Amino acid sequence: MIILDTNALIYSIKERINLEKFIKEEIGIPTSAIRELEDLSTRDVNAKLALKLIGRYKILNVVASGDRGIIEAATKYGGNVLTNDRVLQKSLKERNIRVTTVTKNTVRKL
Question: Which domain holds residue 36?
C-alpha cells in the first residue's frame, strides 16, 4: 500500500501527475490528510480538486492529525508513505517506515 500525504497529493494535482500511472499498489489516504484537504480547499483550488479524487482511494481511519496522522496510518496499515515533506521523511525513516517521493516525471522509493 502507498499512503498519501497531503502535500504529495496536492503536488500531483498541481503538476497534473496521474499517480495511478506510477503506483500499481493500493493507494490509501488517512483521514488526517482528508481533514487537512478540507481546511485547505477553501483557499486552494488544488486541494479542492484533490478532495474529488479521494473517492478512488482507500480511506485510512486515524485519530492523530498532521504528520502524526500519517505516521499513525503507516504504523497501523503498513506500506510506503508518499511525501515530499523532508521533515516527515526524516521522521518516517527514523521509525523504519518506507518513504516514496513524487516529481514531475516519476514516483520513486527512497
Answer: 2-109
